[in-house]
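Q: What does the assembly look like in three dimensions?
Context provided by user:
Components: two
Sequences:
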Amino acid sequence: MRVGIDAMGGDQAPAPQVQGALAARELLGAEDRIVLVGREEPIRRLLDDADGDWSERIEIRHAPDVIGMDDPPVETLRARPGSSVAVMIEMHRDGELDACISAGNTGAFVAAAQMRLRRLRGVHRPGIAIITPTYRGPVAVCDVGANVNCRPKHLYQYAVMASEYVKAVAGIAEPRVALLSIGEEDAKGNELVRGAHEMLRDDPHIHFVGNVESRDLFGGVCDVLACEGFVGNVVLKLMEGMAESVIEAILSELSASMPDQVTMIRAAAGEILAKYDFNEYGGAPLLGVAGICIIAHGASNERGIMNAVRVAGNFATGGVNERIVELLAAGQGTAP
Amino acid sequence: MRVGIDAMGGDQAPAPQVQGALAARELLGAEDRIVLVGREEPIRRLLDDADGDWSERIEIRHAPDVIGMDDPPVETLRARPGSSVAVMIEMHRDGELDACISAGNTGAFVAAAQMRLRRLRGVHRPGIAIITPTYRGPVAVCDVGANVNCRPKHLYQYAVMASEYVKAVAGIAEPRVALLSIGEEDAKGNELVRGAHEMLRDDPHIHFVGNVESRDLFGGVCDVLACEGFVGNVVLKLMEGMAESVIEAILSELSASMPDQVTMIRAAAGEILAKYDFNEYGGAPLLGVAGICIIAHGASNERGIMNAVRVAGNFATGGVNERIVELLAAGQGTAP
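A: Here is the predicted structure of the complete assembly.
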């Protein structure tokens, strides 16, 4: 397969993107290639600095423009058709790439994918599924911000799509699917949740375990959590902020009471943070588009980018998109 | 003032409620009284078990029925007009109580208050404001679940009401007010947030600092965070669940690597958890009703109930309701 990487997208781009591409070569088969999309000159310089011949596995596709992390997504996409992310998505649409990865402006990447790629047959609206690490195992949360408003059928489809995704990338044979709500009883929540609840309950292809509250995310009760994009994004950012905040707090308390043990305490905190490290998971797919689009964290390092390539590979070999189309056709999720 | 306590509401009721009432006597002035509402016989027995004469400061009002923590709120309220929470709210409505507190079924308490108390002049919809402890200081989040759908004017009013509340109970002279969104730029978020943003930006009585992301809750950037009730409830429960989960994780890592220090590590973790302890804050008011209704955590202990009495007192002496009416009349928040 041919995997595109937006070389100009990310807080420190293009260095971690190029290093990640070099590291990811070990994941590739003989026919596989990585295509770095972006400004040729700095990319080539970084590649040439590395040991050995990179050109056997890596190609460069020049794209003159860059979209910054804080640029307004849709406007900038329109104004800069030669941006690395726009060029990469067009290559994907035209069959020159089998998957693409960007750690750049998420809004621009998602907007480009939604505008220029078709949707999978039966899918009403794409959603971003992110695997959130918890101490009792990973949970795929979908949607975390592709769309800020949705209806029950969209929530239902997020659940179906994310369920197929975790089968392929986390090796969970029969993922337990839950709906994020504000009371565990079926009657609680809002109209959106109640509507999606009925659809999921009635679908024999989904292992639906019902509504859960946000605190249950840490209880090991589900493998997939479907929610509306605004709420999902709030959950995601809150977890990131809180993990840092609580660990900072406990380090400060412990360092004060046990000054001789600071090194050991910091090491233990490092173990915890590693379990919450987004680089482990490589990236989050935009599910529902006719393609493979992996959104990596803006601060992804070399390992993060390499793991995003791994996710793209698992996504392709797992046939996630094909399974989503089959399941939506078999279930009730394609009802208008 | 006369403060009612729902003696039958709470995970362990009536014991912590009665103990809390006894402890709260030290907060009372000569004319103040606490009224325990619920089944007279068990309440009286618990009071009589305590040292000294309780009857100088505490009264009992018999109510024959109880609403359980998991009973469907509205249906059960209708079916049991003699429940402690219904009787207490009626006493409040009729002027027999100046404030009321329940650690019982939140839905039933909120529904009873919304059905039987008037709204403050100008208020469209009440909201629950909870003070969430963070390591960089408390933040009042409103609404955390009184209503699951809202429009911009409701969100605006939550911000105004919670701002007045934190002035009175947290002693913050000019609270920094923010809107919870999923991007810090003004144009991001959803229609609800964009609408409320304009109203808050244009109100000279509010110290509006703009939109914040959920991770900023821990960054000390705002004192009040306004959000829709579904999202607010998700945030609240996620924080509870995650504080426990992260601390459990770090204790487990540290205890493995430093087995001799387990006692000291647990003590430090206790310090952290104390900062996140809901009992410190006593309870969350239902803002916007013509009355003082303090929702305490179901697991409140004696100290939690006593602190809820303190919150009710600060709320009354701070003139929160009067200030809310004035501010809404001065601002634009009463527009239909």
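Follow-up: The longest strand of chain A covers residues 33-38.
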